[in-house]
Design a protein that fits this description.
- This protein is mainly α.
- It contains 15 helices and no strands.
- The radius of gyration is 23 Å and the shape is globular.
- The model has no long low-confidence stretch (mean pLDDT 83).
Length: 316
């Protein structure tokens, strides 16, 4: 049992009261939350390091295991889709093409799924001490970024091996794609992490949705295959155009296309009997619009999170 001394009681009494509920004001409340997060940035770094150490605790290879899943998926897709089903015969440098998409999608899916369960996973801290609860989804994003950086190194080495290291303006596509991934994954992690506290089924729905959405994005197939298929099925240019606009509005699709534009240099030129991949119309402008929309979505997501966080301790 803790004995409360007069000095300790006076120290506690001098501490300012911190409301657990949302800050008032849509704009001012967001600014207050950002200031609170900046004041706890060292704690955020500690939580990121804790997640990484806990994930690979007592393992012999440590962080090298972060390459295990994407490399295994690369091998499976390359063999099954590329060789057995013949997709590699219609796509140049199929291995680089696949791994570029898997690198982008791997970060996006990991960040969203980890962020969804982040509040529940840290229920002990949420119930005992005050700290901005947004810090837990953000720590999940930071952990996913570390794994993403490791996979990116492998992707860069692959482009060097095939003699197609990206240069020039291609890196602008990469920068925009990363911003799209970070903004949208953070927004979804905040909302889903908060809702998951009240409805625990959300995390299972997210796992299913992530599995489905991967196949909706051009991770393991070229984007123009979708357009070709729709043209064969519908025979209506207006309907096909509308469907493709919806398809290309998906931020994950744009990010994957941005990665392919950066690292899959072979896709821009014909190679033997394999035609060049058609360029995505206005890809850079599409990603710019997605970033603007994503920032607005992130703002709304933070306010929703702030509204829901007041009862986290009671629900947990």
């Amino acid at each position: 049992m803790t004995v409360e001394t007069p000095d300790r009681a006076a120290h506690l009494a001098a501490e300012p009261l911190r409301p657990a509920g949302p800050r008032r004001g849509f704009a001012s409340g967001t600014l207050d939350s950002i200031k609170d997060l900046l004041a706890h940035r060292e704690l955020l770094g500690m939580l990121v390091r804790r997640e990484l150490k806990a994930r690979y605790k007592d393992s012999t290879l440590g962080f090298i295991w972060s390459l295990g899943r994407p490399l295994a998926m690369l091998a499976i897709y390359y063999l099954v889709l590329g060789q057995f089903m013949g997709a590699a015969r219609g796509t140049q440098q199929f291995a680089v093409f696949i791994y570029a998409g898997l690198t982008a999608w791997g970060f996006y899916s990991e960040a969203i799924m980890a962020g969804t369960g982040s509040i529940i996973a840290n229920s002990g801290l949420v119930k005992k001490v005050y700290l901005p609860r947004e810090i837990f989804p953000l720590a999940s994003i930071g952990s996913a970024l570390f794994n993403f950086a490791v996979q990116l190194v492998i992707l860069l080495l692959a482009t060097v091996l095939v003699g197609q290291f990206p240069t020039g303006s291609r890196w602008l596509y990469f920068l925009l794609a990363v911003i799209v991934l970070v903004v949208y994954s953070t927004a979804f992690a905040l909302v889903l992490g908060a809702v998951n506290v009240y409805l625990r089924d959300v995390q299972y729905l997210v796992e299913i949705a992530i599995m489905i959405l991967m196949w909706v994005s051009p991770v393991v197939y070229r984007w123009d295959f979708v357009q070709d298929t729709l043209n064969r099925v519908w025979h209506n240019n207006g309907l096909v155009h509308a469907a493709m606009e919806v398809y290309l509005a998906n931020p994950a699709t744009l990010a994957v296309l941005g990665f392919q534009k950066t690292f899959w240099v072979a896709g821009d030129t014909a190679y033997g009997d394999i035609p060049a991949a058609p360029a995505v119309p206005h890809l850079m402008e599409r990603m710019g619009i997605a970033i603007v929309v994503g920032l607005l979505l992130l703002w709304v997501a933070q306010r929703v999170f702030a509204r829901l966080q007041a009862n986290f301790a009671q629900e947990l």
